[in-house]
């Protein structure tokens, strides 16, 4: 008999490098197949400076260096998760569902790498681990991303759009009974890069960006980049930021505040451009939801859209929540990746289970 109640931990490390999100979650599935959840203990563990520096430059590592990084990071991540479990005295865990940390994402080359997903992570934690959700989809011809949309469909069906503002932005919605989702643009990977140069960890409420002015030439150049002309399915990796976006921004000898202001306006416009219907209700989560200047600019470009920012736990831990759900679906051998979203040749149940 398939279980209807699950006690799991969801773990997510995003490309914005804010830290490792951990959330203890109870899921229930009723007789009608409707899911509900409750986020219990939750925590974001900031990266030590040594790890932060390594993860920022790992995209350029040799294959040998990446293998060692994967070994070291799996040990580190396993320790963080075990400490979270011990600190909160969490018992009777069905599974730890972990995304790992994306270093390389090149689906067009048939390759994606999330470190921290080696089999020994289960031994380190002492619990069943479900992880490495993206590789199988790429092998099936998909983008390997975004994976969150099936969770949007199952847990947040009352919204017309679900928008996540993290290192990158992504959106999901229903279109002709198919879930559609794709990455829209970089967000905090770029804004944090410039905030760091000004001595801040991030742009608090978008205050730095707000103080700048729009550079129309840069704005036009950003919006003309090839990615924004492509149709979905499509996804982004840090390579896009490193090789295309930052070189373009750096080619303009203007104040950093102006670059951030212009890039914020670019994010807002591309968000509006991405939505087939410009009205309805849109749930906004991720760290970028705290950027009030960005939200204001989005509202300007989407005047008839109701922008909804949820409670703090859902806002901050939605991705950890949904990767926990992906793990539960894998336990049930149920579909947890949608081909309509990733472009894979079929829907499938993705992820590795390590006991």
Q: H/E element string? A: EEEHHEEHEHHEEEHHHHHEHEHHE
- Mind telling me the C-alpha Rg? 19 Å
Question: How many beta-strand runs?
Answer: 12
Quickly count the helices. Answer: 13
Would you tell me the overall average pLDDT?
Answer: 95
Notes on the structure:
- There is one protein chain.
- By secondary structure, this protein is α/β, with parallel strands linked by helices.
- The chain is built from 13 helices and twelve strands.
- The protein has helices spanning 49-57, 63-87, 121-125, 135-139, 149-155, 188-197, 207-211, 216-223, 238-250, 256-274, 292-301, 312-331, 339-342; strands at 5-13, 20-29, 35-45, 95-106, 111-115, 129-131, 161-165, 168-175, 178-186, 280-285, 305-308, 352-354.
- The strands form two sheets. Strands 1, 2, 3, 4, 5, 6 and 12 form a seven-stranded mixed beta sheet that branches.
- Strand 8 (168-175) and strand 9 form a beta hairpin.
Give me a quick take on this structure.
The chain has about 350 residues and is of the alpha/beta class. The chain has helices at about 50-55, 65-85, 120-125, 135-140, 150-155, 190-195, 205-210, 215-225, 240-250, 255-275, 290-300, 310-330, 340; strands spanning about 5-15, 20-30, 35-45, 95-105, 110-115, 130, 160-165, 170-175, 180-185, 280-285, 305-310, 350-355.
């Amino acid at each position: 008999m398939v279980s209807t109640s699950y006690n799991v931990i969801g773990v997510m490390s995003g490309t914005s490098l804010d830290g490792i999100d951990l959330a203890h979650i109870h899921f229930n599935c009723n007789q009608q197949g409707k899911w509900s959840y409750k986020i219990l203990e939750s925590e974001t563990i900031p990266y030590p400076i040594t790890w932060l520096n390594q993860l920022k430059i790992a995209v350029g590592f040799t294959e040998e260096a990446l293998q060692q990084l994967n070994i070291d990071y799996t040990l580190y991540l396993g320790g963080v998760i075990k400490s979270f479990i011990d600190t909160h005295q969490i018992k009777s865990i069905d599974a730890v569902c972990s995304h790992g940390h994306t270093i390389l994402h090149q689906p067009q080359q048939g390759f994606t790498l999330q470190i921290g997903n080696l089999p020994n992570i289960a031994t380190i934690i002492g619990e069943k681990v479900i992880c490495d959700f993206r590789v199988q989809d790429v092998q099936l011809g998909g983008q390997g991303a975004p994976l969150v949309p099936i969770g949007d469909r199952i847990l947040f069906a009352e919204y017309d759009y679900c928008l996540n503002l993290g290192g990158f932005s992504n959106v999901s919605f229903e279109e002709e009974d198919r879930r559609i989702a794709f990455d829209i643009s970089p967000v905090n990977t770029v804004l944090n890069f410039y905030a760091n140069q000004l001595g801040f960890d991030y742009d608090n409420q978008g205050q730095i960006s707000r103080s700048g002015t729009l550079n129309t030439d840069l704005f036009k150049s950003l919006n003309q980049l090839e990615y924004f002309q492509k149709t979905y399915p499509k996804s982004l990796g840090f390579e896009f930021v490193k090789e295309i976006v930052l070189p373009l921004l750096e080619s303009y000898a203007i104040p950093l505040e102006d670059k951030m202001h212009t890039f914020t306006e670019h994010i807002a416009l591309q968000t509006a451009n991405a939505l087939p219907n410009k009205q309805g209700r849109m749930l906004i989560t991720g760290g970028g939801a705290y950027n009030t200047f960005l939200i204001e600019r989005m509202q300007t470009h989407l005047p008839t859209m109701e922008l909804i920012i949820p409670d703090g736990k859902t806002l901050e831990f939605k991705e950890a929540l949904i990767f926990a759900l992906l793990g539960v679906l894998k336990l049930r051998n149920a579909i947890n990746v949608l081909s309509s979203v990733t472009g894979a040749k079929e829907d499938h149940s993705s992820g590795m289970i390590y006991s």
